[in-house]
Automatic annotation (TrEMBL):
This is Kidins220 protein. Residues 1-16 form the signal peptide. Keywords: Signal. It comes from the Eukaryota. The gene is Kidins220.
Amino acid sequence: MMLRFLLLTLAAGLRLNNDPVRLWEEHPASTAEELQELLTSMIVEAGTVQVPHKAGGAEAQEVELRKVVADMRKPKDLLANMIHTIWQSSSTKRCHQQLEQVMGNLTLTCEGLQPKTDWILDYYASPLPNKTCTQSVSDIFASGDELVSILQVSRSAVASLDVSDETFRRYQALSFLRNWLVKLTRTHHHALIWAGFWDGDPQKRTTKGKLSNFAKSVEHATMHPDSFLGQVIEGSQNLDACYEDAQTIALAGNMWSIASMSFVLGMREKAQGTVIALVNKKITGERNLSQSVLSTHEIPTVGLAAWGLGFWSPKVIVVDLMGTCSQTSPALQKQLFARLPTWAKSMKRWSAEAFARRSRLQWQCIDCSGTCSLDDALAEHVEKLVKAKEAQDRKDQELRQ
């Protein structure tokens, strides 16, 4: 009996020694019901606040930005180029070069795809002129943020002529844009999003190489640079020279709004069951998380795609390399809902509670700081979470049939 006890104890000890030590902390997941309740509260609260509307503000900025874009794309003679170079600061000059490179690459690619607008527009009493790829690329930079908001305009509203001329114009621009740009976000695997990884990390813990290897380990791909659109943007250094001037900041911001919309719509079209977000940025300080593309554009667009367009219920898995899930999760969840109260308000037949039930999105955050890294053990654990969600989605689909 004693010998048997010793053998069992030894076996248990060997199992413990062979088990990988978890260097990460997995926080309890926010359930679909918890997120629905939180969103309902935000919608109700937003409905009691009167937000002043600046008439013509967006249109005026769009006109101004279109002039800037047109000027950049206009051929210049030698003298004009010399004057332009002397007048511009070095950062503005580099920004314009980056913008021109992105515009040129996107225009050529668009022309090769020969996109079309939504066919219901052909039956409009006063049809607009056909869109060109040059115009469509200009739309990205001049009115990207406004075009994203047009996602909430239904085809039935357009078909019944229940929209303003301005909304109709933007609907045409967005439908043409979606017809070609979303195709450029395709990757061989499901996509993940990220913020704060750089090759200058002295500890080699959060390099882009580590990011890429982790993505492959969980059978995912990074949206940028693994997709064609991501490669185009990265080829122009992510427009890093365009954040010192109000005008160029607006141009870059519009581009990221549209790019993020396209990335996320690509996920939704593939019915991607999980959205993995790898984060290596602090909440406060220089180049903080709230200023990142992930926080300002990508996560809010996940919310739009899930609840606004409706009936997409991924599980968001945040891996926080700073180990600050207690701060990161609430901040990013707030961004997830940021654009939804306005959308919910436009859907007059839906109560706040009914709107919140349009998606059963879940949320989980994993702290991975200190000696924790994007290694095989963490990749295996995240992949288990992904597979579990896939199994649940299959089960739900079977129950609906």
